[in-house]
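Budget justification note: compute hours in this period were largely spent on complex prediction jobs such as the one shown. Inputs:
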Amino acid sequence: MSPARDLMVVLALLGASAGVPFLGGDYWIGVGITAFMWVALTQSWSLLSGLSGYVSLGHVVFYGLGAYVVVASWEVLPIAVSLALAAGAAAVFAFATGMPVLRVRGPYFVILTFGVAELVKFVVMAAEAAAGNASRLILGTPEIETLFFLMLALAAAATVLAWGVRVSRLGHGLRAIREDEEAAETLGVPVARYKLLAFVLSACIPGAVGGAMALRNTYFEPLQAFDPMISFSMIAMAVIGGSDDLRGPVVGAACFVFLSEMLWANAPQLYMIILGLLLVIFVLFVPEGLCGRLFRSRGA
Amino acid sequence: MIETLASGQLLFAALALGATYALVALGLNLVYGTMRLLNVAHGDLVMLGGYLTYWAFALGGISPLVSLLGTAVAAALLGALAYRLLFRAMLGARRTGPRVEANSLLLFFGLSIIAQNLAALVFSPTPRGYEYLSDVLHFGNVALTGNRLAALLVAAALCLAVVLFLRWHTMGLAMRALIEHREAAAVVGVDIDRVQIASFAVGFGTAAVAGALVSMTEQVSPFMGFPFTVAAFVVIVMGGLGRLEGGIAAAFALGLIETYGVALTSTNWRSILLYGTFVALLLARPQGLFGRRAVMR
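Corresponding output:
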């Protein structure tokens, strides 16, 4: 296992895909945006949940908040500023909720994160309804090529961040927490601080991704931006690709992007059923994920 | 406003909702209590029970109060099957580590996604409802429809039956033994495997009956389940693990909070109230259901 080599492989892949806009049409650019979005989201999710074992079922809350910030500040602030604000809002939210939420462990943490995400969704919906905008139109969104390179940059940033965490003290501390939290604390791992830091780091990029994705559509609806299926997809991709491996999110995202391109538009339910089935099969038979199964068995 | 709040109408609505929550939570409590498996797909069984009842009524003209027997049996068999095929091996390998809890949760979550989307694919996402016992009855100044009253009575009777089963039946006692202390139960000769399969069957069956009752008064739709899971979870955290009587009291408390909360605000707030209670409760008791145990030690 060489994290540095994994990083090079993933970045090389991402770099190679930068050629897509020059070769393919709008369709392939769209596929690229979706793929990079999932890589960025899943990589961020793995940073927290893959390493620490605190499985978040509510990561969509950061995505949705980011989208909301960008939409709310649209035509007021320049895009770059509002995207930074989106990432910042997600990080602040993670910091504020992280302290109480991360005290909850195991299965309770899992469903608590889901509950928090749903609660925020309904609060945003109620706020939007009270303000009289059930859905908003967004005019003058950027070119699809701009979004492509923006999302590519976010995927690369998420990968570098995930790599940085993995090779740092923080990463080792998180793995220790995953294996045995009490033992880690006894040995001097600053458990509470590490968990909170990982939570905040894993929230920033989903915030920016949500903000960028909001600009891909011309309208914004809280129900879509906070769709729990986004959280579910992150988990399924990470579990299938391998959640403690830098390449896992890329493999997982790649598996699903083509599946979703084929099915999402015409048969979204069938797509979700296949996603659910694959999750069940992988949890039961391949809990280490594709990367764990394929690469690690050889002298790791 | 005060008049609305003081009316028997609202109290009845709260009771009916509480009885449904109590029934849904009973099953979740059993499965969680005996195996420490958190079934996030529990609410989807409510949805399946609702659809079975709807189709029996729409296609066969069968009264929901009759078809719920078949619904209960079908769901119980599904529970036994799920246990045999998916969870037995995983529980047997419990020693492999604390991942079992998180993994079983992901497994249930996968099943939940499959159930919801399968229902949406086969039955279409359109909500469906039917008219049954919808005549309005008057008791003093309280007006209510027959189906609500029937649902309340059946739910209350079934809750009572399960409580009696756990108190007097050998299998019920074995379930409580497993909830209290798994290893000790095994030592005194409780057949763990049989108790676990029975817990799955009873848990799934009661949830489906709750769904049948819900379908009598509300429309069924593929994604109606999760709020029931959340409500059931709130109930067992408030009432206590394996304490079914406490759970019933908690269910009525939640029914009151939700009904009066909505009456005081608006229907838009229903979900906020439910999820808000849920989040607040878990934050207040981060140790979750193990709290009581830790204190006792």
